[in-house]
Amino acid sequence: MLFSSNNQDSTATKHYTTSFPTYDISKHIEDARSSILRILSTSFYDTYTFDEAYLTLDDIKTNTPKELADAHYSSEESTAGTGIVLENAFSNSLIITCQHVVSSPDTVISYFEGSDIPEETFVKSISIKHKQNNLLFTKNRIYSFNIIAANENHDIALLSVDIREDEKLPHPPIQFGLGDSDDLKMGSFLYVLGFPSGYPMITRGITSTRPKKNKHFFLTDALFNPGISGGLVLASKNNFHDFKWVGMARSATASEENILVPRTFNKDYSKLAKPYADQAFVQKKVRISYGITQAIPINTIKDFIENHQQQITENGFRYSIRD
């Protein structure tokens, strides 16, 4: 149960407050912090490259890429994020996070480009995923998890964490009630909790756009760093007497640019002063616009959970937004 000082005005309003807290709310924040976890998903790829523009995707499907490729190397891609504990059952736990944190393409294809080359015709490289490791971190242990439901358009996923029968996940389910994102307004004060760059962090922000029914996110000026996706977003209607769960941090606005990078794991390229003479590869570099963060409204999250109630029940959980 959450308490507040008797001399504080706890009068509730329809909209979430725009004021700054005027008294100690650390107990609320500690409760929120205990219900979030760090997530890491790593995908392992075999990549095959082709030096000349003469092979189509059908050619590669007919033969194995290894037989046709001019070069082959292995690589891995990791995505970090934050998960929110919804329920601890007998031998597993139910977690919610962003879909993009735990999902990666099975195949990535790049094509040769040029004024005299047909668009998306001749394959330059193909990367094929052969394994994916999904890990969840607590203070003392690392657990694996399975994805039991996901929606790419809404960017939401439900996870089931396997726990030994003699153990219990040392993180309680979220202790805050489900809010109503329709009651957010421009200027509503928010707290965002997550694991940017793997560190447990708390930041604050102000709602800059109200959630719209045709859009599955709203904007806030909270600082965003990779790893906070899936982070818990809280707001209050009664001068921070208590909080409601109003959303989940999703992503920041960003721009992309193509840069040349050396061959992956090239041991000879160890000195910056030494000219690089091996094959170069094009890699996309993302530049994040800090201070422009997208958050998934809690009403979208509630709809997602309700639409996937069957998967929740089939995996041994009782969680429901109607409880």
UniProtKB/TrEMBL annotation:
It comes from the Bacteria. Pfam families: Trypsin_2 (PF13365). InterPro entries: Peptidase_S1_PA (IPR009003), Peptidase_S1_PA_chymotrypsin (IPR043504). Transmembrane segments: none annotated. This is Trypsin-like peptidase domain-containing protein. It comes from Fodinibius halophilus.
